[in-house]
Task: inverse folding
């Protein structure tokens, strides 16, 4: 079992501090003084913004979108991307970018084998590209960083959903703008289900709650401040678009679908009383077996499904979900949300000892290695994969259709975390630093965490669609710096 002690030992990263390095420290050792960091602003101090009293607002339940039509066996959604105002901080209106006016975007519920058609109408005033993260889709609907469409135009994306259940999400992917556009609100959840998942007696209905986590940096007027690589300045934690909310729960089991939609922040989550919970899923759906833990690490874009059993607490209990990882003042970034146990309730749900069976891995047909690095070059931040900045005219990796390859990915920075996301495919983690993965990484993944100096070995099979796709660090500020490359499946 991964305990809080072993997780915090693994995360004890300190150093000179380059692009989130020095700030990537456990909150138990982080200084408590508010930050005014001039590093990213050429010497001008930037305040961290107004403090917010925690647990004053309820956790909003994300709206479930309704298809406007059904045609040819597909559900059709018309979504308008537009700028609007949202009350994030109490009493203040914040300018945000949204899908249909929702901050964050609403939930699309889909089913394996039933296509979804999304007609996205751009009224943002900026170019955009919509990527369904974790989905196996034709290249024309992948949301390539260079395949953007302008404000005042529309784009139709078709998602075949020819893959098993998974908690996916959609977000902007316009290169050089993806970081700021997502930060300002362009992301939403896409929950794909199937018969395997629905046959299990897991918590469902009102007891199945999606929670999108992120951080933000506000000025004194409540407006979002965007500064590239502003890890320490983004010091207000949001859950479903609200700062430090509370959720009233019954004394029974709940399923929480957690998404880290931050640009840079890693979350190390625990319950304040140190009690265990059960992880049942990751990026690519349910794990083969449930995994009991008392700590959960989520890098940007990673998802985890967990079950928390509140029946062990008496009515009246207030239980805080904590974040034990910096950067930032622990009073601001150490709390995420609070669970208030307000009533008793019957609970027919349970977590089976076996959740799903994954097919055996096919024979390996090739092996490749990839190094991730971010540095200052000529006074400018630069992200690279294998020493090269992203070039949309260059094919970096040529892959035969049907190949099943082992990729060894290394974070060569000693003080900066990264992660690694592949479009088109879900993969299996084979090793982390030469050791077998824990139960939390035993399932299908599309994004994998790489702490400073870490090496992860994974296996991916390219047997769904041909075409050119990207892989990149999903710390989106790093991706915007060029830490991205192109692969062609031929």
Result:
């Amino acid at each position: 079992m991964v305990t809080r002690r072993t997780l915090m030992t693994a995360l004890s990263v300190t150093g000179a501090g380059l692009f989130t390095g020095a700030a990537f420290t456990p909150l138990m050792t982080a200084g408590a003084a508010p930050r005014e960091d001039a590093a990213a602003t050429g010497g001008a101090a930037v305040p961290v913004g107004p403090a917010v009293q925690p647990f004053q607002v309820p956790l909003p339940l994300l709206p479930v979108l309704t298809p406007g039509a059904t045609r040819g066996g597909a559900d059709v959604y018309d979504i308008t991307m537009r700028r609007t105002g949202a009350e994030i901080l109490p009493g203040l209106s914040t300018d945000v970018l949204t899908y249909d006016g929702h901050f964050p975007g609403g939930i699309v519920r889909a089913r394996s084998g039933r296509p979804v058609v999304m007609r996205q109408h751009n009224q943002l005033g900026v170019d955009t590209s919509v990527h369904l993260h974790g989905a196996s889709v034709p290249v024309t609907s992948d949301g390539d960083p260079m395949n953007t469409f302008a404000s005042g135009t529309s784009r139709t994306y078709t998602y075949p959903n020819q893959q098993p259940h998974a908690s996916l999400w959609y977000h902007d992917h316009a290169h050089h703008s993806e970081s700021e556009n997502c930060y300002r609100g362009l992301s939403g959840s896409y929950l794909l289900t199937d018969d395997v998942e629905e046959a299990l007696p897991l918590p469902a209905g009102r007891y199945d709650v999606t929670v999108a986590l992120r951080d933000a940096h506000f000025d004194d007027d409540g407006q979002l401040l965007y500064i590239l690589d502003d890890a320490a300045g983004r010091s207000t934690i949001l859950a479903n678009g609200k700062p430090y909310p509370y959720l009233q729960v019954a004394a029974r089991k709940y399923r929480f679908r957690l998404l880290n939609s931050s640009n840079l922040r890693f979350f190390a989550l625990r319950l304040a009383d140190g009690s265990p919970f059960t992880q049942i899923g990751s990026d690519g759906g349910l794990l083969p077996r449930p995994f009991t833990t008392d700590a959960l690490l989520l890098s940007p874009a990673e998802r985890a499904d967990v079950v928390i059993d509140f029946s062990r607490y008496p009515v009246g209990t207030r239980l805080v979900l904590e974040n034990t990882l910096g950067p930032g003042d622990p009073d601001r970034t150490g709390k995420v949300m609070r669970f208030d146990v307000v009533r008793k309730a019957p609970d027919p749900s349970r977590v089976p000892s076996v959740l799903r069976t994954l097919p055996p891995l096919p024979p390996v047909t090739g092996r490749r290695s990839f190094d991730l690095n971010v540095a200052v070059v000529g006074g400018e931040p630069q992200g690279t994969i294998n020493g090269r900045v992203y070039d949309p005219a260059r094919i970096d990796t040529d892959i035969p259709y049907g190949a099943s390859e082992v990729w060894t990915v290394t974070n060569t920075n000693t003080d900066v975390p990264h992660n690694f996301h592949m479009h088109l495919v879900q993969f299996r983690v084979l090793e982390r630093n030469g050791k077998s993965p824990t139960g939390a990484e035993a399932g299908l993944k599309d994004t994998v965490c790489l702490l400073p100096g870490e090496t992860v070995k994974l296996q991916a099979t390219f047997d769904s669609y041909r075409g050119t796709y990207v892989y990149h660090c999903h710390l989106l500020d790093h991706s915007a710096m060029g830490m991205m490359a192109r692969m062609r499946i031929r």
In short: Confidence is low (pLDDT under 50) at residues 1-23, 28-43. The first strand starts at residue 69 and ends at 71. The longest helix spans residues 4-10. The helical segments are 4-10, 178-183, 195-198, 330-333, 476-480.
